[in-house]
């Protein structure tokens, strides 16, 4: 969305009563007058800082003027607004639309939490199980030369794991020893 469209969308919000005070509008106009490249000429800046006109009229005229000038001018207005009135800048309707998350986008913070919600004990249990299975596969592989003591030690390790796993491991070891 271009800055001109965003400014058009935010115009009512910005010009409503007591959103911007006179000092903040003057700071924004001065910044737009002094920034490189110069957004407002000296005559334009004096026109938008004229204390004889109401604040609402000056601000409305400024926003319309910036929209006529183009996207770069509107972008510089948003930058000046962010510098001089950050809370108001964060409350803009167009900013709220930009902050709305895309339903197809992955929220990395939430995804990180979802992956790490089980804690270190779960990680250690999974790692131990994977290491144990790798050792078991290595020791019971007929292509590798393993000392007989390692098979005996491995035969007793499933006792810690549980009855069902122990039975499966022992059957596998017995089958391997017959071959």
Automatic annotation (TrEMBL):
Protein's UniProt keywords contain Aminoacyl-tRNA synthetase: no
Gene Ontology terms describing biological process: regulation of apoptotic process
Record-level GO cellular component terms: endoplasmic reticulum membrane; mitochondrial membrane
Domain spans labelled CARD: 38-96
Topological category with respect to the lipid bilayer: Single-pass membrane protein
Key word Disulfide bond present: yes
Protein name, UniProt field: Caspase recruitment domain-containing protein 19
Gene expressing this chain: Card19
């Amino acid at each position: 969305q271009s800055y001109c469209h965003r400014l058009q969308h935010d115009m009512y919000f910005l010009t409503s009563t007591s959103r911007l005070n006179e000092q903040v509008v003057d700071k924004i106009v001065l910044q737009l007058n002094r920034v490189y490249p110069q957004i407002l000429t000296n005559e334009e800046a004096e026109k938008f800082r004229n204390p004889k006109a109401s604040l609402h009229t000056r601000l409305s005229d400024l926003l319309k003027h910036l929209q006529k000038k183009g996207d770069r001018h509107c972008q510089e207005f948003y930058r000046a607004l962010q510098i001089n009135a950050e809370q108001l800048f964060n409350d803009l309707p167009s900013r709220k639309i930009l902050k709305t998350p895309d339903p197809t986008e992955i929220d990395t913070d939430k995804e990180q939490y979802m992956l790490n919600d089980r804690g270190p004990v779960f990680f250690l249990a999974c790692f131990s199980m994977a290491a144990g299975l790798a050792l078991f596969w290595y020791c019971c592989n007929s292509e590798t030369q393993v000392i007989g003591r390692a098979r005996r030690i491995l035969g007793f390790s499933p006792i810690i794991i549980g009855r069902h796993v122990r039975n499966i491991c022992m059957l596998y070891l017995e089958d391997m020893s017959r071959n």
